[in-house]
Amino acid sequence: MTETTTVGACAPRPVVLQTHGLTKEFKGVLAVDHLDLEVCRGDVFGFLGPNGAGKTTTLRMILGLIYPTSGSAQILDHRVPGDRREALKHVGGFVEVPAFYPTMSARGNLRLLASMSDHVDRQRIDEVLDVVGLLERADSKVKGFSHGMKQRLGIAAALLHRPELVILDEPTSGLDPQGMKDVRELIRELGAGGTTVLLSSHLLHEVEQICNRAVIIDRGKVVVQGPVSVLRPKEMGVKILTGDQHKAAAVVAGVVGEKVVTEDEGYLIATTADGEVPEIVRALVGAGLDVQAVLPNIEQGLEDFFLELTTSSDSDSGQGAAKRRGFIDRFRS
Amino acid sequence: MRSIRREIVKLLSLKRTYLGWAVLTLVPLIMVLALDLSTTKPPPGEGPPFFSSIVNNGVFVPLAAIAALSVFLLPLAAAMSGGYSIAGEAEMGTMKTWLVRPVSRGSVLLSKWFVSLVYVLVAMVIVGVVGGLAGWAVFGVHPLVTLSGDTVSIGHGIWLITLTYLLIFLQMVVIVSFALLISAISDSSLAAAVGSLVIMLIMAALTAFSYFDFLKPYLFVSRAQDWMNLFRTPIHWPPIRDAVITYVVYIVVLVTAAWYVFRRKDILS
Questions:
Q1: What are the residue ranges spanned by the domains of chain A?
Q2: CATH topology assigned to domain A15-231
Q3: From the CA of A243, how many Å to the nearest CA of chain B?
Q4: CB–CB of A113 and B267 under 8 A?
Q5: In this complex, do B97 and A67 lie within 8 Å of one another by their Cβ atoms?
Q6: ipTM of the modeled complex
Q7: What angle is formed at CA B160 by the lines to CA B23 and CA B132, rounded to 5 degrees?
Q8: N or C: which end of chain A has fewer CB within 10 A?
Q9: Do the domains at A15-231 and A236-300 have one common CATH topology?
Q10: Could you tell me which of B94, B260, B6 has the C-alpha nearest to residue A65?
Q11: What pLDDT is attached to residue B116?
């Protein structure tokens, strides 16, 4: 079994967000299927899944925008729907692309939002605009804003009332590399500052970089949930370059056994289990070989798994689906 | 109250708000200008009610202006403002921005309805005041001659005109409420505005056939001219009372339905 968390996994930390059998059916199609999530205080929680997996639908239900067909979400002690207004006092965030009144300035929009919460003054508006780097454009109308600026304004709006839980739906989508870096840095800082963040993303490496716990969902169902380390496949490829590849192949085979060892552009490629890499290196050095490089084999690694998950979600039948089930099984075993 | 203030801030941020008011203001001005410039007087009984009386008495300008506007332009403004209320936010994607904050959907809906009404009311006040001032400046003001042939003081005349405005305003509230309901259902402000106008026009068409006479008391459009009874001496109240009752029933039913729809609605845009 993977270390998929069950209820109570947060202890001793308090649970900030839970969903209980959260289900949404749209005209006979199950978009979200009995989803159980648990986000602990201080988590930067990655919510991963290919496009169309039901991420945004789940977030909409958590934020009280749509009604679950069955099940519920719980933010701190408040259920959604039901105690929606009390719950939302502790949450900030957006789904899809953040939208604002185009004919009003960034500051004007935030003022409207500020009037919906207690204890948000003008200084706080400037503060959050500064955090996302929009202070200089605070009085420009939103209709002139680029996609990236709207994303950042969305984050500012989410932070405005100092919520305990921040929900961000693909906040880096459509940003340039610098913008992505800035936003990820910001989320990391939020987490470090004790804010709980629920980050939806279809980018595995993004979640790996900034999250401590994560869930992968596919077709509305949890595939795996737990610390980010559970997202790593049990087996991973490494690429090895030494002074004598021929001799090295024999040494590596001695360590990893059957799972050896093909050659690709001069590299040896071995599939390794946990803890085998240091062993391989020791063996190579022990055999008197000059180790030039030991690299993770990305194609065989995380992205590969996730890419499979993503690309085959379009096709219902045939090889894609079968292959994907194979991948999912690998993570469940 | 804060949600009403928010809606007013949004309303005033839109250029079309001022454009709409400006267009409606032009109507009484054009009326006064045209009548002042033309050498022939309009014969009695032509044009909007009291139109032919304007040249003798500027007090009639606000009355003739609102009578002319209430046929189409004012319902159009009401339908657009009500239709835009919910669906306009859906079109911009901003509804989800507000609804993830701890506000009740009911207060969002009601404040949007209320501010749509304020928009229409402001338009009517502008028409009345501008029309009155223009009429006074060009034609002067005199005691009014009512439909019964009696003469009433200028003060009483203005009071009667104010009552007329209120009755027509109530009729516009019905149209705004129709538009609000469709706006809550459809996510398209155009559909809501056009839809509520189409409902009004279909009702008006029904009143034209005697076969549908049994429906007439229940159609709000058949009350459209009932304000004329204010200008009889003594005022003939029963039709006015019936009109108010009809309007209020429509308004309560429509707004309740809109609230019911919006409260349960999945906000997807």
A1: 15-231, 236-300
A2: Rossmann fold (3.40.50)
A3: 60
A4: no
A5: no
A6: 0.86
A7: 40
A8: N
A9: no
A10: B94
A11: 97
